Amino acid sequence: MYFEKLPDILYNFPIRENERETFVVLKDITANVRFIAETLSNVTIYDLYNIVDGETPEMISDKFYDTPKYHWAIMLANLRFDYINDFPMTYDRLQQYTLDKYGDLYAIHHYEDENGFTVNDDYPLATPIDNITYEDRVNESKRTIKILSKDLLNQLNTEFNNIFKVWVYLKQ
User: Do residues 148 and 77 touch, judged by C-beta distance below 8 A?
Assistant: First the structure.
């Protein structure tokens, strides 16, 4: 649905066989939409949701909006643009990722004090934090997302369509 609304552009693919130009119609992926920061900070327009292991933006969209087509709205509302790195990994994938990254799940990543601040290993009461614990914390920080209300989603969809209508008009 998101990409359907993007404007079309003609792209020139030179073909060397006959030295002729071939134009192909493509979606202009350089056109994009972002939420206004003040809108995202308004806690009355969304609910918080904790992503279950293995859920994709399409699955979450289907769960809340009865269609997978609003995955793009979930991603935009949460400023997440990368399906792989911006969403939590399953625990098995997290373990493999950590092992690939560090070579050892349980080697010390860093030390923390009693307040969770990073400190040197000689700090009094410094607690060692291993690689898997560190990466698990990073992974868990990606789990909570904002789910826009259906009313706001309808308004967003209307405004989204209007933005691209104006954008296409201005580009002509």
Answer: yes
CA–CA separation, 107 and 34 (whole Å)? 40
What six digits make up the tokens of 46? Answer: 């969304």
Q: Is the pLDDT of residue 38 over 80?
A: no
* 8 Å CB contact between 72 and 2: yes
Interatomic CA distance for residues 35 and 45, integer angstroms: 13
Of 165 and 25, the structure prediction assigns the larger pLDDT to 25
Q: Secondary structure of the chain: what % helix, strand, coil (to 5)?
A: 45, 20, 35
pTM across the whole model: 0.69
> How far is residue 49's CA from residue 147's CA, in Å, rounded to a whole number?
7
- Distance from C-alpha of 69 to C-alpha of 25, rounded to nearest angstrom: 23
Cα(72)–Cα(75) distance, rounded to whole angstroms? 5
| C-alpha to C-alpha distances, 12 to 15, 20, 121, nearest whole angstrom | 9, 10, 59
